[in-house]
Amino acid sequence: MAQIGTEVVDRPLPEQPADDTEAHEEDDTIGELPTDLSGINADITSSTANSPFNKFRGSICATEGYEKNLHVLAKNQYTDRAMGIFTSGGDAQGMNPAVRAIVRMGIYLGCKVYFIHEGYQGLVDGGNSIRQATWASVSGILDDGGTIIGSARCKDFREKPGRLRAAKNLIDHGINNIVCIGGDGSLTGANLFRKEWDSLLKELVETKEVTQENADKYKNLNIVGLVGSIDNDFCGTDMTIGADSALHRVMEAIDCITTTASSHQRCFVMEVMGRHCGYLALVTALGSDADWVFIPESPPEPGWEDQLCNKLKSTREMGQRLNIIILAEGAIDTEGRPITSDGVKELISTRLKYDTRVTILGHVQRGGCPSAFDRLLGTRMGTEAVLALMEATATSQPVVIAISGNQTVRVPLMQCVEKTLAVAQAMHAKKFKEAQELRGRSFKGNLETYIRLSKLRPKVVSNKQCSFNLAVINVGSPACGVNAAVRSIIRYGLCEGHKMYAIFDGFEGLINNQVKSLDWVAVNGWSSVGGSLLGCQKTLASKVGLAKLAEKIREHNFHALLIIGGYEAYLSILQMYEARNQYPAFQIPLICIPATIANNVPGTEFCIGADTALNEIVKICDKIKQSAQGSKRRIFVIETMGGYCGYLATMAALASGADQAYIYEEPFTIKDLIDDVDHLRKKMEGHLKRGLLLRNERANEHYSTDFITKLLQEEGKGVFSARSNVLGHMQQGGLPSPFDRAFATKLGCKAVTYAVSLIEKAATQDGKVICNTAESAVVLGLIKRQNEFTSVESLKLKTDTEHRMPLEQWWLKLRPLLRILAKHESVYVSDLMEAGVEEVDQSQ
């Protein structure tokens, strides 16, 4: 379906305190939702009429299939509903952001929202365990790990008498809509509860514990599930809430251990969680350049002990000072026997006499602040869960809100549970290949990629007769994850039997012959390094000279050029593509792998480096909020990078709970700024006496960060003070996030595969390559649910060349959500899709 940009009607709420009090529950100052939604459509269109991006988005009414696929949520749309929310099973970072989004979106829509404390136990106990939530109940919890409403195992709920008590407690509170956040066991219990609901009500009526009137009023129980699990072991979604944060904990530990291991030439065996699923171990190994990984779904073949020792010995002989082995706690061999971390340590210490240590991370992986990804994932899923409940009917089946690529989808709950159970059954039967298939294409792809990239000496695994020359170059500004992409390109190309070249210092380096052939060992350990080890320059191809570049490409006999970088990389490929007739040397595969913290490259929804930068910003915002909380009545204005693109400012604001984010794509006036001052003044009347505003560095030529700060200082005299903070280049620093490492690795491998496929089709008998089609000059990126190649020729029409960014940007549709959760009035438009579990698991 067509992608929708910003759909927003923003007006500050009159006379409404920024943090909830008891009076808020009765506040009707905004009025009722209009019965004719066409008025909203008109407002949405007019609100962005002055934006240069509006004509490319189109109005809501004009969007093909809009009525069928999009969902509009507005203030007080469902005033007669009540919903309950509980967390069950193991806790996971990101649960609190989900709880916050559910509570605030529910209240915004006019619903009563109830906390059910301690999971199913609270459902059975009732009483004080079921309490109505307020807006202020979820203030300041975005950066808290765990779950503020508790989670507990409950034996009572497994028996019918317990479920009878649970049903009565819900009816007593007028609740027949439930969001369950948990794993497959918790969601299975919720589905059983729903199936029995009718019989439970009949029994309660017969025993006169519930009136027939109430039984008729609440005759349907609607269930929506969100998967909270650090193991990422649930089929039907690419990521579960908490998995990314757990990866952050594991990767941070690996990065720290690497330095001490190298100092003493030690071998470390690191055990991570994953009793029945090897996701954490596998992605950790993929992003940390680990020497070996043990996971339940892929047991090592008999004789693995010899293979492991031989590999470790070879790495030391080649000069490597350390070895890292990742082991999932549920690791087994082909006979189902456990492989333990102590057992692996004993093997290495005895046979190789290496100083070997074991580190078991344990519950550290569950703790700490949620990552930016998990905050956004929980927020998006929580919002969509409320929407799913509001749209549920008597015949609706329970659904899980899942993420497929970058697309939120509704998947039938029991389909997901059944497939998840099928994985366990396959592993129990020692059908490990089947278990890998059931985990989904993404899991299997990660495993195959790790195996290829971790080989000590590459072996040609294809039947190709020809060897090609592939070159990789970094053009643009530094972005974390670039080195991981280079590593995967070099090693994957070598694995396919090709010659791999690295060009240092951008196009200027190519002109100066800074070209080097890299072997397997040369890129060892690159995944965990920030910045760009190749060196990068922002100089465009045209600036260096297309004729000179063509001559150098011909001189080095490159058959393909893979350019990692930001907008400069995209624009350089476009320039070379358009000059192909003049310079035949450019008639080779030209592939752009987007890497920039600005996230402004056309043809992708995410760029390598943007996630790391976003996490850096969110961490700083958390610290600044802490400072403001100590100071009391203080507003901070934070300036982010990104050029004209407001991605970082918007997503960081959403992930940190900011009050507003000022960006170029959404024009604002002095009146808007004054309205925000009024909003913040009212907020100070509540219990949370701090505020946070983010501003993109080029949001407005005149309303600078300094101007906004001084405006707040002047207009807030006697009520609050204001400070500003320009984050600058610290956003480009740090170590790559787990997402950026894995994303870069996958894109690098896919780019090599695509380039080689084009070369093979275009290669002549004399060894020349002639690729002159639009499909041979492309950008590789994630678009909704797939990693796709898009020609630069087609992207030219979808690009704002003056401001260096795409005309359509997916994240703009989240802007209204930012406003709603900060207690402004807005209209949220969702483009959530419905899909089967097989469809989600087969997405890339």
TrEMBL record:
Matches recorded under InterPro entries: 6-Pfructokinase_euk, ATP_PFK, Phosphofructokinase_CS, Phosphofructokinase_dom, PKF_sf
Activity regulation information from UniProt: Allosterically activated by ADP, AMP, or fructose 2,6-bisphosphate, and allosterically inhibited by ATP or citrate.
Region of interest called Disordered, as start-end residue ranges on this chain: 1-37
UniProt GO cellular component terms: 6-phosphofructokinase complex
Superkingdom: Eukaryota
Entry binding sites for substrate: 229-231, 266, 273-275, 329, 357, 363-366
Any Gene Ontology biological process: fructose 6-phosphate metabolic process
Metabolic or biological pathway, per its Swiss-Prot or TrEMBL entry: Carbohydrate degradation; glycolysis; D-glyceraldehyde 3-phosphate and glycerone phosphate from D-glucose: step 3/4
Region (C-terminal regulatory PFK domain 2): 469-844
Active site: 231 (proton acceptor)
Reaction catalysed by this enzyme: beta-D-fructose 6-phosphate + ATP = beta-D-fructose 1,6-bisphosphate + ADP + H(+)
Locations listed in the record: Cytoplasm
Residue positions binding beta-D-fructose 2,6-bisphosphate: 538, 634, 641-643, 697, 723, 729-732, 804
UniProt: ATP binding residues: 90, 153-154, 183-186
General function of this protein: Catalyzes the phosphorylation of D-fructose 6-phosphate to fructose 1,6-bisphosphate by ATP, the first committing step of glycolysis.
Assembly notes: Homotetramer.
Family label: Belongs to the phosphofructokinase type A (PFKA) family. ATP-dependent PFK group I subfamily. Eukaryotic two domain clade "E" sub-subfamily. Belongs to the phosphofructokinase type A (PFKA) family. ATP-dependent PFK group I subfamily. Eukaryotic two domain clade 'E' sub-subfamily.
Protein name (Swiss-Prot/TrEMBL): ATP-dependent 6-phosphofructokinase
